[in-house]
Amino acid sequence: MRYIFTFIITLLLLPAACMVCYAQQHSVSGRVVDETGAPLVGATVALEATNFQATTQSDGTFQLVKIPPATYRLVISYQGRVNYSQSVDISGGDVQLDEIRLQPGQVALGEVVVSTQRRTQTSIEVPVTVSTLSGETLSRLNMRQMDEMSTFIPGMQVQLQSPNNPGYVIRGITSDDGDSRTQPRISIFQDGISISRSRASVVELFDIERVEVAKGPQGTLFGRGAQIGALHIIQHKAQDRFGAEVYGGYGAYNHRFVNGYINTPITAGKLANRLAFSYEGRDGFISNLSGGRLNGKEVIALRNSTRLWGGSNTTADLILNYQYDNYPGTSFKSRRFAPAGGDTDPTTSADLEQGEDLYIKRHVGGATLLVDHRLGNAWRLSSLSGFRAFDSNESFDADGTPAQLLWVSERAKGTQYSQELRLTYENNSRFSGFIGAGYFYENSSQQVPLRVDERALYPAYIAPILSAQLSGQLGQLGTSLGLPDAQVQALTQQVQQLFHTEPVIANGQPQLVENLPNLQPLALGLISQLVPGGLPLGITWQQLLQSGMLPPALPEELIALVTLLDGSPINRLHTESYTNYGRNQAVELFADGTFDLTDQLKLTAGLRGTYEAQRGGYRADAASPPSVFGMIANNGSPNLLNPVSNGTIYASKNYYSYVGRLALNYLFARNNVYASVSRGRRPGVISILPAETTYLKPEVVWSYEAGVKGLVANGKLGYELSAYYYDWYNFQTLSLQQVPGSIAPMLLADDAGKAHSFGIETGLRYFFTPTVNVFGNYAYIDGKFNDTDENGNPQEYAGNRFRLTPEHSFAIGLDADIPVNGRSSIYLRPSYAYQSGIYFEDSNREDLHQAGYGLANFTAGYRFLVNNIRYDIGAYGKNVFDTRYLIDAGNTGDTIGFPTYIGGSRSVIGAQVRITF
């Protein structure tokens, strides 16, 4: 009893004792900047001969807390800068240092600070392959779009058909499906918040702090959507100093852009605000003979970031983002039929009949609240709250011809909310890591209205279907009745002649068929041969139906078909629509940490468990009036392409899952050798249709990777080299599938079985001088489907390469900033990126293939400083040699045998000006 009493008294007195101890401890805080006053993020701040260490935050501030009273030596280091040190006496209380400026060192090659492992490290230290681009690099190379950025990240491609139709590819794996019922393989994050839903993921790159691309399964770090990688965009936050910039230019195709920011302290040391903006517009590269131009751009984006310092240990950032895209239509051009006076080249004039009624209009907005609270010198609690909503509306000509075969719209909209709490432990002890929990909710839909001129659809697609259907029925009937083969063949030839049509486009003009063929004379002639004595002269089909003289052997389907095909007018306009729905909820628990086995050898392990509830929905109402062709060729359906659902139908499924990683790395002299094994997972797919609901199994990948990266040659040469092997199970792909209720195949999620991928990536950057460097990267990817699945059965895509995946790709460039005097310089930044040939579909069809090509870009100009205001006057060029290439092929038109092709951006050269305060 005495021991229990002593224990209780000790517990009661412990907080008071701690308060006495803390009362005798103090803190050191300050701010680290470069020679211009800009904050240096990730500088190391330490007290010599102690375990007290910190890194500077995004505004350059740092704080060391709970330090016993004494005199210490404070040391600040940052790669490429001269180390700073001073004596600090905290015997008298907390110490607030003046602003500390670090001067440039001999070389300017800095280790990029990243937060990939959810704590502040340099890119060299993390035991995964992570490519980074600083905001300064994006600006220097004049990159404002995600596809432009991706060329400088080995193993990554971004296919930006439009802001409504992006495709992200990391190491051969594509994430581009707009269906609300499917989940991404590649996570797109903005300040720690997922923005991965396809139709809401494209953002303009302006006022960016840095971009990080972590490759390989990253579910432990970034959640269930990062099956094969994650792209993380970190935006600039408000800083406790005044600053502003405006940056604009004008070039070919009426290309114009302006962006900038203004950063304003509101209450010194407590509250600041940063407003950033971006506008870019460009006329379309493709002239549309039916009106307007295609493949243009117009977008405005706004961001407001407010930072609150809640004392020395707490920061809170409220970030509001909004983007409005108002693009002209996309040129989905056919290679089968040329426009009048033109050709079938996808990069030249098109004739899409809806003219200026083709467009993309997209609203995307979101709010993010980031709260970071230091619990001590080693512990930190972080909260990440995110809300996002999007509404996207696109109208496009899916067949790529002047005829209205498929005029399609897409209305995609959705909302999502996420909340994550994370507790991080980080100091000089042998362990650093984090634990946390998260919740994710998403509700989205995709509506696809379709408008068809059946007078054009008939010669293009319907006539061959009906001809084959009726020829087969009559052939079977004639054979069953014992008619001679010659007579049966003559009947089928008559049918084929009735359904023979001219091409739907001739000399660039639609060739419309106004009336259905009349089968009744053919049917009456056949029946007359089957009725003893023949039919009465002059009898009509309607009279025959009422007479009771029909031979009993005639199939009911044949009678109905003849009745419908009586030469009546074909519908001018048929409309129908379908909508898919997706609702996803997930609860996640995760932990990840690094244990120092020795000072140089480190072991990292992580695990994330997820419970997810998925619900998919489908709705397609019956068209009114119905399509005659649907009634004939679609088993009586009033619709052509969308199976009728009789209301909204839903299906649900819940999953428990896990992903994890294990990595070992060895650090030596700013170099890192690492190896890892990890498990990635893509959630299953609920493919719901009226006839059948298919539950695709979750896609699983095992990853094995090794690499080395670091700095050599006295820090002048930075390098990275990695090799990986991926093994997939239940590989999910998209394929054209024939389903009941549709006359054409539908593009649906499909299980392609087993697949594998082997790859090598490397990157180099060498500094000749502090202001002149060359850089380059190379990636090799051999991603293919296995010959057999896990059960040993042959696979449909056996040996095929993954879609949108070049076998070889590389990029090279020069970044030269040559001083003229102490306050001005001339700069030149040319670059060239190449990728080998790619297939646009996993089927590897040769007609859906792009041969290898390269693109050259540059920026050049003159920079000077006057009264602490920096001016930049220069020129820029994109695709300067006007290389012709495709960014997509196949698309919706392929479902009716009209694949379409989208040409890439043409050459744009212009002038630009930047002013920085």
Instruction: Write down the CATH class of the largest domain.
Output: Mainly Beta
Tally of alpha and pi helices: 10
- The domain tally reads 3
CATH architecture title of the largest domain: Beta Barrel
Name of the CATH homologous superfamily of the largest domain = TonB-dependent receptor, beta-barrel domain
Shape annotation: elongated
Distance between the termini: 72 Å
Structural class: mainly beta
Question: Topology, please?
Answer:
Blueprint: H1 2-23, E1 26-33, E2 44-47, E3 53-55, E4 61-67, E5 71-77, E6 84-89, E7 95-96, E8 100-101, E9 113-114, E10 121-122, E11 130-134, H2 135-140, H3 146-150, E12 156-160, E13 166-170, E14 173-175, E15 186-190, E16 193-194, E17 208-215, H4 219-222, E18 229-235, E19 243-251, E20 255-267, E21 271-282, E22 286-287, E23 293-294, E24 297-309, E25 314-328, E26 333-334, E27 359-374, E28 379-397, E29 407-425, E30 431-452, H5 454-480, H6 485-498, E31 505-506, E32 509-510, H7 520-530, H8 541-547, H9 556-564, E33 574-596, E34 601-619, H10 628-633, E35 649-668, E36 671-682, E37 685-688, E38 693-696, E39 699-712, E40 717-729, E41 732-737, E42 746-751, E43 755-769, E44 772-785, E45 808-821, E46 824-835, E47 838-839, E48 849-850, E49 853-866, E50 869-878, E51 886-890, E52 900-903, E53 908-916
Parallel strand pairs: 1-7, 1-8, 15-18
Antiparallel strand pairs: 1-4, 2-3, 2-5, 5-6, 9-10, 11-17, 12-13, 13-14, 15-16, 17-18, 19-20, 19-53, 20-21, 21-24, 22-23, 24-25, 25-27, 26-52, 27-28, 28-29, 29-30, 30-33, 31-32, 33-34, 34-35, 35-36, 36-39, 37-38, 39-40, 40-43, 41-42, 43-44, 44-45, 45-46, 46-49, 47-48, 49-50, 50-53, 51-52
Helix pairs in contact: 5-6
